[in-house]
Amino acid sequence: MRNTSIPVSPIYFNVAEYCLFGINLGVVIGIILYFLFVNNKYNTVAGFLFGGKNMSIVSISLALTASHLTSITLLGVPVEIYLRGTQYWASALSLIIVTFLTAVIYLPVFHRLQLSSSFEYLEIRFSTHTRTIAAVLFVVSKLMLLPIVPYVPLMAFRLVTNPQASRITAVVCVACSTFIAVGGLRAVVGIGIVTTFLAFAGTALPSGLALLPLGFKQMWEIASLGSRLVIYDPDPELAHHTSFFVVTLALSTNWLWKIALSQSSLQKLLAVPTISKARICLAISCVGIILMKLLSCFLGLVLYAWFAGCDPLLTGQIKKHEQLVPHFLNNLSTMFPGICGIFIISIFSATTGCIASIINSISGVVFEEFIRPWMPQSTNELACCKIMKLLCILVGLYCASVIWLARELDRLQHVASGVTGVTAGTLLGLFTLGIVFSRANCSGALSGCILSLLLCGWLLIGAENALATGALTFQGKPLVTTGCGKANFTHLVNVTTIVSSAARQLPMKPLQSLFRISYTYCPFAGAITVLIIGVPMSYLTGKSKTDSMNPDVFCPLTQSFLHKLPDRSASTSSELRAPNTQEVYMALDDALKHLKEVIDRSPAMYPLRTVRSTHVSTEYSK
Questions:
Q1: Which CATH class name applies to 15-407?
Q2: H runs (alpha helix) in 34-147
Q3: Half-sphere exposure of residue 298, counting CA atoms within 13 Å on the CB side?
Q4: Cα–Cα–Cα angle for 44, 46, 51, rounded to 5 degrees
Q5: What phi and psi values does residue 2 have, to the nearest 5 degrees?
């Protein structure tokens, strides 16, 4: 039962925070101006998409790290820990597995082919129709996801400012991102470097300062008593979207698509000259992302230690748990002024970098897949680069208009997340089918893709309907309000009894239908469906002609398997191939020399033949 609403005063920037925000905005504008007017020598398709393919390891590593430091990571992960415990730590294992698979299986293929668009691989491997379908899925999912990226911090920080100001901030963020995308990959990498340092500072500082009055030991004890320290949760309930298997399997599928195969990630990995440097970038970024995830988990434990006995949502202080981090900063800023401004600046920077990367990748895919095939072959690189910059501006205007005109995007947020998961799983299955399975053909790829979309779409629609009707709910750990009004951190003894009694009141819902499967399973289900359908269908419709195919389209493991097979076509062709004239002359000369040696050994028996053979040999040598 919800208690009486407790008022909370909004946060306003002080002079120092306005100065910090102005400095950050000035850095962003400086990056825009530099790459638009000073460092504009990369006015080609390769320069715009890949930065000239001569970028440094450090810059690309930081940019890859920044691509994962979205507002969802900074705001959503701490709330997930607060509500459901630290099982999310297992995402570190997922990242290690994904990085290894990317470096061994997927990266060698695309680094050898050096394609401007990752979907060009599907045409080389399967057909033009497969490439078009995949490109459409990518563009649609990214266009649906794009307005959600600035909407998440917009909704969260409406708690600390008026709605009009938060909307203007979101539009400014989108505008900056658009012009960064116009500057090409080098501008995106530049803002990514700034984002990485600000995100680490914006997450570590609040956690560290909050522990000063609390202490690490007491924080850990409160989290333990509240059942938030979850190391291994083998819950088989498919609706439970934070169990160990969900975090490892489902998130690995989604991240494998994002890190190994998405256009924005491949642009960065192909921007370094050699594959060894690209693998080093992957390893460094993996360490950075894991560190950031663990910092976010730590911030979630700090949040729970502050609000373990008085949940702000139950008391009416916030409207959604997504506003928990700004509310925490509101409390913390009374002791440490300026900390809220640092976090808001990190959120602004992370959102800007993420939007810029998405806009840049969308413009590149739209140009390469839907515009360039219809352009004359004589079109110069400068004109192509201008078209891509125009596409960046159009995509940015679309995003800004949706943010400004839409009242609430909550439903769109759920749908966009589901559609992104469906397309990520299907596309991952398509690329894996072509890269790993040498006998896969176009029929298997198309049938697997279509059935995967139908299955995952059916699950997504059913789950959305179950959420709307209340049949599907995501349960978390117990939350209480009995500690409200007491001195901070003095309700430690009462937490044990409160949590245990609240845990007994939680209803247990049995698995009633497939629609209760957690949305995080959609990418995994989509990828597995493509492989399960695509491989048998390829064998039923006829094997692909691997002997006439470029071996670079397969991963090194598949190539080594193909090399071990007996090369029947080569032996057959060598038997049927007609010898050339030079080989005939050499064979005839060897035969005559051998015959001459035999005759010389017995001159008495074949006097006439000796003369004749000598004459023939002389004539032939002439």
A1: mainly alpha
A2: 45-50, 57-66, 71, 77-84, 91-101, 107-113, 120-125, 128-145
A3: 18
A4: 100
A5: -80, 135
pLDDT at 78 over 70: yes
Which range (380-384, 518-522, 597-601) has the least confidence? 597-601
Sign of the Cα torsion 479, 483, 488, 492 reads: negative
More confident call, 492 vs 14? 14
pTM of the model: 0.80
Go through the chain and tell me how many residues it has. Answer: 622
User: What are the extents of the domains in the chain?
Assistant: 15-407, 411-473+509-544, 545-569, 578-621
Q: Say if CB 176 and CB 32 are below 8 A apart.
A: yes
Mean pLDDT (the chain) is 76
Residue 154 and residue 71: Cα distance in Å, rounded? Answer: 10
Token pair recorded at residue 434: 């072509």
Q: Can you tell me the distance from the alpha carbon of 593 to that of 268, in angstroms, rounded to the nearest whole number?
A: 65
Please give the structure tokens belonging to residue 301.
């434990």
SS3 (DSSP) at 380: coil
Please choose, from the candidates 484, 475, 62, the residue with its C-alpha nearest in 3D space to the C-alpha of residue 288. 62
Q: What pLDDT sits at residue 34? A: 81
The confidence band for 309, taking pLDDT boundaries of 50, 70 and 90, is: confident
Locus of tokens 């563009």: 139
pLDDT tens-place string over residues 15-41 = 777 777 778 778 888 888 887 777 666
* Cα 399 to chain centroid, rounded: 20
Q: Which two tokens stand for residue 487?
A: 């001195």
Nearest residue to 481 (alpha-carbon basis) of 308, 228, 236, 295: 308
What is the C-alpha to C-alpha distance for residues 571 and 44, in angstroms, rounded to an integer? 46
Condensed to tens digits (0 to 9), the pLDDT of residues 474-494 reads 666 777 767 676 554 444 444
Write the pLDDT tens digit of every residue in 192-226.
888 888 888 888 888 888 888 778 888 888 888 88
Spell out the residues 6+ positions from residue 382 whose beta carbon is closer than 8 angstroms to its own.
Answer: 43, 44
Cα four-point dihedral sign 589, 593, 598, 602:
positive
